[in-house]
Amino acid sequence: MRIRVINPNTTESMTALIAASARAVAGPGTVVEAVTSAMGPASIESHYDEALAVPGILAALHDADGYVLACFGDPGLDAAREVAAGPVVGLAEAAMHAATMVGRGFSVVTTLSRTKGRAHDLAGRYVAAGACRGVHACDIPVLDLESDPAARKEVVALARHALERDESDVIVLGCAGMADFASAMSAELGVPVIDGVAAATVLVQSLITLELRTSTRGEYAPPPAKRYSGLLQPFERT
Amino acid sequence: MRIRVINPNTTESMTALIAASARAVAGPGTVVEAVTSAMGPASIESHYDEALAVPGILAALHDADGYVLACFGDPGLDAAREVAAGPVVGLAEAAMHAATMVGRGFSVVTTLSRTKGRAHDLAGRYVAAGACRGVHACDIPVLDLESDPAARKEVVALARHALERDESDVIVLGCAGMADFASAMSAELGVPVIDGVAAATVLVQSLITLELRTSTRGEYAPPPAKRYSGLLQPFERT
Amino acid sequence: MRIRVINPNTTESMTALIAASARAVAGPGTVVEAVTSAMGPASIESHYDEALAVPGILAALHDADGYVLACFGDPGLDAAREVAAGPVVGLAEAAMHAATMVGRGFSVVTTLSRTKGRAHDLAGRYVAAGACRGVHACDIPVLDLESDPAARKEVVALARHALERDESDVIVLGCAGMADFASAMSAELGVPVIDGVAAATVLVQSLITLELRTSTRGEYAPPPAKRYSGLLQPFERT
Amino acid sequence: MRIRVINPNTTESMTALIAASARAVAGPGTVVEAVTSAMGPASIESHYDEALAVPGILAALHDADGYVLACFGDPGLDAAREVAAGPVVGLAEAAMHAATMVGRGFSVVTTLSRTKGRAHDLAGRYVAAGACRGVHACDIPVLDLESDPAARKEVVALARHALERDESDVIVLGCAGMADFASAMSAELGVPVIDGVAAATVLVQSLITLELRTSTRGEYAPPPAKRYSGLLQPFERT
Amino acid sequence: MRIRVINPNTTESMTALIAASARAVAGPGTVVEAVTSAMGPASIESHYDEALAVPGILAALHDADGYVLACFGDPGLDAAREVAAGPVVGLAEAAMHAATMVGRGFSVVTTLSRTKGRAHDLAGRYVAAGACRGVHACDIPVLDLESDPAARKEVVALARHALERDESDVIVLGCAGMADFASAMSAELGVPVIDGVAAATVLVQSLITLELRTSTRGEYAPPPAKRYSGLLQPFERT
Amino acid sequence: MRIRVINPNTTESMTALIAASARAVAGPGTVVEAVTSAMGPASIESHYDEALAVPGILAALHDADGYVLACFGDPGLDAAREVAAGPVVGLAEAAMHAATMVGRGFSVVTTLSRTKGRAHDLAGRYVAAGACRGVHACDIPVLDLESDPAARKEVVALARHALERDESDVIVLGCAGMADFASAMSAELGVPVIDGVAAATVLVQSLITLELRTSTRGEYAPPPAKRYSGLLQPFERT
């Protein structure tokens, strides 16, 4: 089977990181293709960025059996489900579902404080009330996670604080840029630490194995064809 | 004061309808400017359409003291709040808040069945659990509401059914294209019927009068500047 | 149009304060009449006070196009809606609705700690779960807010603490006696600060403009006529 | 011990009915005193009636070890708890708690449709979400329950319908005037049928036995003394 | 009437403690019989213990008019209701219901931290959201509560902390082994302190007095007869 | 890797069915071992059965990298997580998580009406409010599903009804005995139909691949050692 992992920002180095994380867990026989969005923001750190990452995602939903949206804000997930031919899984979605299966309550550690609200909203959408016990931000910009050698250390410290404060037992990494932190952090903290990229990869692989794809009954049926104009005319579907 | 009412689809005749509804309730001294989105879908009837209506909205948020997003799905509301200089109010948001102040429980009557989920999601975001007692669809496409002479009649019948079935006491019109139905429907049904365009206009006017604008503390602070590329390069902010 | 702002306690100086706050935001052509309750407690600081403020409110619901209940506990709101000929808006109701349109989560700052539960209950009734992120009390009695020169300063300090602790971005003033604090507090704190008196005035004005009044279908229909006796015989309706 | 059962309306025949129901279940050594409110409405069938029943209740909270508020709307319960020297239990409160201990989900059958919202509100306050599966009205006025020989039959039919429709397994009688229906209805329907008067009597008796009374820490502490004026001056506390 | 109080662990000294607490509040004419489980764990401090306490409970549900499950985790309550001939009440259930009738929000103080999640789950099942404001653990093993002279003191200190931190006004004791702490703790703390053993005893007595027993309509009907095998063959019902 | 699928009832033919469903989706390199419980009920159709299925499950949690609890009631899931060395996934848990990733709202179709409450409880635990739109029962006993040739047809008809009534877009099969219905039902109904056995198998395989196992921080730490006695003495852990 073929899984397409879409990096919704335009930074190639993040695509490489994401690809490595996804490939590390894909099963034998699963081909992981990681693609970088062709348009929009270099990183996603606001609702504005997130909204403008969606067109690039929608343009990339082809030629695979299933799709991973590799940004923790799960931008455009509903729209993607309407147009993709196979199942689509978001990072927050996958990580949060996995977290509930290995613990009683998780904490999210993320990058900028301003994105905490979005993480809470997503928890409200995906998991039962109370499963997400807190969201914590290190206030390191997304693109500095890789380059800043102190970043991982700060994220570990933040996670340790979150476990105490939230009385949680699992850590969810709230940014695709933290994908390579999970294993070492888990060893250091002694609790499950979940990278959404890996989680989404095995979950979409699971859905494909189960021969499940997005329901076309009702809300997620293919959208009605119509005229598109201006800059976005290329998105017209016929 | 100056209120800009943004029609997020590209259909000029809907902009005219929306403008009339907004102007009918604006106070003396309030200038209502209605604009049509410069890009994207001709009408909004899916998550795909909604996502692709957001760039056009974001491009139109200037030169006013407050903004109305004139589509019942309130597309891009969070992003709009980050970048607009004045308050921004969505149609569903305004209509639902108003509904809770004149009744105990409202029903939404909307166009396509596939949009019911979005209406439920918005109710979950804006009002207390239980305030929205039901969402009902007539399955008339948005752009046929005007042209189809039977449309209003069908919407009235649907609303009547909704009041009985949901034991509700207020009707919320779930599409900007129904803006001119409210008054006659209210007379026929004997209950408050709320048009979101008018409601959003007076609410944003109220916020401006109160000298309230979106908080810049935390989540809605102006987004960090960054590189945008490809088709969406024009959205780069500096 | 004519809006009657009802001070549900019997303290005239608070009525003057409330009247000034309401008049400052009323539109041209709107006449604001502020009245003091003819019976009951001098201030409202307990469930007991609140219950006994309701008869005075019910006696004052006449001769206007819309009504403001100018106490943050919104006493008797349901009963008022049954008998008033025009829309009725409470202070907490108006302030909380407005708060959700200019921020992601608000904190209430109020007078006595013992009233915090009521504020939480009202938030549960008016806004979506999570919108009210905390309620904080300064423990200054209502009638001392005006006379105590240090009061405003303490309320500012409390609000600053609330913003940090609750990770909120908007302040709601939890007492009609704080009506004149809003503007200076907003300047000091750098976030929207909402006075319920002003908010309720523009919201009820908005409802009147929209030609909306309380639904008479079901729960808010005029109450059945019946015999009243004893001290409360004057409240008999025929 | 001494339990005072307060009929918050002014109809003596209802007091007699309530007294009989309470006495039938009181333990040996428990004295039940039933009193009729000295002021206000002859029956409680609206928010207006309910608000105006509260002063009469507050005037009757003396000379006992515990109190039952014998109206299913539990009017003034918070205020009563602030001023009564012993525990106070409402009818809806008692019946709903009892219902959750003998079944998985209950239906309320009540008098007027306009009171259904209040029953839902109380369920939201007392029991976990989902415990109350429906509220159904027979639209027989409160004072006709006794005199109308067909009333009980209609209430039985309504309860039978409720059990089917709500998939519930317990019936809660939603009016003090139905107190004498419980036993026969239970026999006919084959499910527990709960009369709030009896339930509140044994529950308040239980609280007294446990030496529990309303906490005076925080919200339910005795209200601050203050000036009361006008018609309600007699309610001033010193 | 005859109430059977079942200690679901196998420690006789705890049964004696429980029996004393139950007998102290039972009415005249009520016979309290306390029994020790015939199988399973010596104390209940994990989900594992709790699951393995259930068979012993199910074997003890006979020869009484009503049953108390004397462990704060309320193990096997649903199963017990299916097979017992009279009403069955759990400790957490009784204590939490009672707590809501004498205060606005309670804190639970319990033994091991690992059981806090269970207490939260039970609160979610029995009482309205928000009624349980916190769960706190002293981390003293169940069987040390009696023998350790410092235990009560530590529990008092924990409760004092809980009242401050949770802004609660009632304490619920989260372990049957704390049954004899309630009265002295209440005197020291100045708030109601609720022992679930006593609470469950008077509540099941109340249900019996009301002639209420578990509904046999639907979920709690006697379970279908079937073959049981292996170690648990004795549990086969015919 | 090695996955142990535990049939918690004692019926061997159901184990065979379950094994086939699990093996059909397990990845290359995954060994699925299906075991039948050594004690307890022949099928699980009540809370009583479910409680008495738990000991058999707890006895079977060894010699694998991960475990599937192959009963839709997910009996003993918390206890199993405390003692198993690898991750443990329940059928309802897996099916409900999967359902939310391929649709907007699912309906459960199950066997006996009396188990509907349990399905609702589990939905409340695993997924966000509103994700489970209904639970429907065919009232065919578990062990008749296989032998009754009409069973699958009735389940299909029930599912069709559920999709209409609940406005859902995914079907969750609410019994391990329906494991072989999924594929044909999906073809007939045109929506995703989810068999929990298959879903749990791929999900536990995913967790193992991610090197995630149940957190031992807090609630799911190994239970304290203690004395067990009577029939259940063999469950003593040291």
Automatic annotation (TrEMBL), chains A, B, C, D, E, F:
- Entry superkingdom: Bacteria
**MF term (GO), any:** allantoin racemase activity
Does the UniProt entry include the keyword Isomerase? yes
Gene3D superfamilies this protein is in? 3.40.50.12500
InterPro entries, from UniProt? Asp/Glu/hydantoin_racemase, Hydantoin_racemase-like, Iso_Racemase_Enz_sf
Q: What is its EC number?
A: 5.1.99.3
Q: What class of enzyme is it?
A: isomerase
Keywords attached to this Swiss-Prot or TrEMBL record, sorted alphabetically, are:
Isomerase
Q: Which family does it belong to?
A: Belongs to the HyuE racemase family.
The protein's matches in PANTHER family, at most eight in alphabetical order, are given as: PROTEIN DCG1 (PTHR28047:SF5)
Report what the protein is called.
Answer: Allantoin racemase
